[in-house]
Amino acid sequence: MKKTHETQEQKEPSAQPAAQEQAPETTPEEVNPLAAELEKARAEAEDLKRKWYAVTAEYENYRKRTAFQSTQRYCEGRADVVSKLFPIADNLERALTACTDEGTKKGIQMVKAAFDKILEEEKIVVIDPVGQPFDAEKHEAIMAADPAEGEESGTVKQVYLKGYEQNGKVLRFAQVVVVK
Predict the structure, then answer these.
(1) Closest CA to 164 of 128, 111, 131
(2) pTM for this prediction
């Protein structure tokens, strides 16, 4: 049995150098293609990373833009609904001037005050240009009047229908009489 053991020991040391000799050594020709391939992969990864950042930024801008547009459309929709109520306010004011019964007049004033409160909540303000120069961006001239003493040409003399604006945007132009 001793001989078998010795034979195996003799075989093992001789097997180790053979395994070491069989391991391929990398030559400079083999290293360069690997380095070039690695550099190519890094450049491609960097390019993909830049594209990913661009797409991410583009999506974020799109998300912000659509959120803003959605909010803006919602506010415009609310303003459209309220602007359809402006003729009712005009009729309430006419009713106040024509009403002689105090009880009825008080009721109309309460309804008008509720309407004015809604306008205030919606940040809608009345355009009241009496005595101011005519502004085509906020006023609609429906008539020209002769100047009275002390009135300047081009100023608003009387408001026929009130105008309304919200955040600088005109919802209804004020219909006015302008001094010639």
Answers:
(1) 128
(2) 0.62
| Residue 41 predicted with pLDDT over 50 | yes
- Does the pLDDT at position 82 exceed 90? no
Helix (H) or strand (E) segment spanning residue 173: none
Separation between Cα atoms, residue 143 and residue 36, nearest integer Å: 83
- C-alpha to C-alpha distance for 124 and 89, rounded to whole angstroms: 13
158, two tokens: 């009387």
**Residue 12 maps to a domain:** no
Pairing relation of β-strands 139-145 and 174-179? parallel
Instruction: Give the mean pLDDT of 15-29.
Output: 54
In the block, residue with structure tokens 């360069």: 32
- In the 8-state DSSP scheme, what is residue 150? T
Amino acid at site 106 = K
Let me know if residue 23 belongs to a domain: no
The helix or strand, by DSSP H or E, that contains position 168, with its residue range, turns out to be none
Strand order in 156-161's β-sheet? 139-145, 174-179, 156-161
The answer to whether 156 touches 130, Cβ cutoff 8 Å, is yes
**Do the Cβ atoms of 146 and 180 come closer than 8 Å?**
yes
Which residue range forms the structural domain that includes residue 107? 85-122
Domain count within the chain:
3
